[in-house]
Every structure is written in structure tokens, then in C-alpha cells.
Amino acid sequence: MNAQPAQPDGTYTAMPNGLLAAYLAFAYDLYTVGDNSRLDDLLLRRLKNIDQFQGARHELFAEATCLRAGYTIERENEQDRTRRHAEFTAIHRATGQRISVEAKSRHRPGILGQPGTPPPPEKVSLRFGELVNDALRKNPPHPLAVFIDTNLPTRAAERLYGFQRLNRPVPPPMVSQNETSVTVTFPPLNPLVPSRIMATLLDRVCREHGGVDPYALLVFTNHPHHYAAPDEIDPRKHLLSVTPQQAPPGVTHAEAVLALHSAANLYGNIPNQFPAARG
């Protein structure tokens, strides 16, 4: 910021590079969780450990997202060794909807403290099925929302998060009528669907679970701050949320689940003013 010219009011402005954007988003997520009395010592210790930072950072993002979506957080009883546990349970204040939340982050060679050399973008693995399945194997007590950090450079992310158009015959319009009116509904032209890579992943997960989507929500995110050079502006972020065709048992308020997607889209959107400190 010191390298920038001063504005007429004496302040300094700059387009954030990846490092600055990562720092600001991280700080705001810490504030969000801390302001809701959820910033515990265990999470702080993990964030300070280079080997655990990546996973802890993504869990912090998932927790801050749930809080922004109007949820409260309830920790799992880690002393209970009879079963595996999700990261936490989120309870929607307005509806009482309970969601088990799991956070998974893809580690890559040479990235975020991992050993090895980063591969070129065209050779980066786009496989995430094992992360999804590992979360599902925990068999939590409530409908499961899985937050998946794909950890991709921008070029590779475009391949995963892009959409394809299905060039298929357009069905005829649907006509309905009553005593006073006639309604004609035209189907969409070339509807957008997820990329072939993403569609293959979702189809495989469904097949491996008896033809049923075994989750309430999948939230795929890519926050590639750390892939930018110091003199580059912060790269584009990606977000894709997936809901099952049929709501799983336990989902009684679909709007509460969908609120997680809207809240995830607020990542890095930091307000100019903060509420007064609580007494």
C-alpha cells in the first residue's frame, strides 16, 4: 500500500494481489467465527501448523459460511469413539433445520506447504470422488453438506467449473388451459449443465450409492489466491453448489440448505463497517 499514490483524502487504494486478498478473507473469516464465540484453541493451533493449515483454513471457511447463512454451530463429541464424526453440526436459527457439515480440501504437490513440485495446469488432477466418498462414509446423524476445496490454478479450474450446452432436439411447448385462459410454456433452449468432468463425478457418486444422491448439498469452491504471482491481481474464484434431485431424509427446509450456497458466494466480501463490540 505504501507504493500507491495517496488519494485526495489521504487514504491509499490498490487492487489486491492474491496474497493480500487471501489475508483479508482469512482475517474476516476469523473475525466472523470469533465474533460468534466459536474460535476455539484447537482450531487456532491447527491454523498455526503448516502441515494442518490448509485443512483448518477450509474448515474455518465452512464454519464462517454457515454462520453467515444464519446457522449456529454445535461441536461434535470427539470423545465418542463409537463412530466417525463430521466437522460440526449447523442449526438454522429461523427453521431449526440441522445439517452435518464436513470440509475436505485437495492437497497438491508444492502448494500450501506440501512437498513436491507443482504440475503444470493442464496436468493437474481433477479427481475429487474420494474426498466426497470419505465425507459420506462418516454417516453423520443429520443430512450432510460437504464443502470441497478443489485447490486449482485458474486454468484448471475453468475446465472443472465450466458448463456445457446440450445440443439436443427442443421439445414442443406445453399448453395448459382453464375456463378463462390458455398458458403456453416454452422449454429452455440448450440448457446449461455442469462440465463433463463434474457431471461424471456426480454420476459416479450416485451410482456407487444405489442410484441415490446421498447428500443434502455439495459446495465446490476454488479460491486460488496462492497461485497468483506477487505482481498479479487476485485470480478469479469459482463456486458450484449441487443439490440432489430428491431431498434426502431429514431435509424439511430446503431454503435453509440453499442459504449455504448464497453465503458461500459472500466469501471475500468484507463490509466497510463492523458492529460495535459486544459488552
SSE blueprint:
Elements (H helix, E strand, L loop, with lengths): L17 H18 L5 H7 L5 H16 L2 E5 L12 E5 L5 E8 L23 H8 L7 E6 L4 H8 L1 E3 L8 E4 L4 E4 L6 E3 L1 H13 L8 E6 L15 E5 L11 H11 L15
Parallel strand pairs: 3-4, 4-9
Antiparallel strand pairs: 1-2, 2-3, 5-8, 6-7, 9-10
Helix pairs in contact: 1-3
Kindly summarize this structure in a few lines.
This protein is an alpha+beta fold. It has helices at 18-35, 41-47, 53-68, 129-136, 154-161, 196-208, 254-264; strands at 71-75, 88-92, 98-105, 144-149, 163-165, 174-177, 182-185, 192-194, 217-222, 238-242.
Counted by DSSP, the helix tally is 7
Shape: globular
Count all strands and give the number.
Answer: 10
Q: What is the CA-atom radius of gyration, in angstroms?
A: 21 Å
Helix content: 25-40%
Please indicate the percent range of residues in DSSP E strands (runs of 2 or more): 15-25%
Spatial strand arrangement across the major sheet: 1-2-3-4-9-10
Structural class, by secondary structure, is alpha+beta
| Low-pLDDT regions | none
**Ends apart, CA distance between termini:** 34 Å
Describe this structure in words.
The structure is a single chain. The protein has 279 residues and is α+β, with helices and mostly antiparallel strands. The chain has one domain. The protein has helices spanning 18-35, 41-47, 53-68, 129-136, 154-161, 196-208, 254-264; strands spanning 71-75, 88-92, 98-105, 144-149, 163-165, 174-177, 182-185, 192-194, 217-222, 238-242. The chain has a 6-stranded mixed sheet with strand order 1-2-3-4-9-10, with helices on both faces. A hairpin with a 4-residue loop joins strand 6 (174-177) and strand 7. It is globular and about 70 Å long. The protein starts with 17 loop residues before the first helix and ends in a 15-residue tail after the last helix.
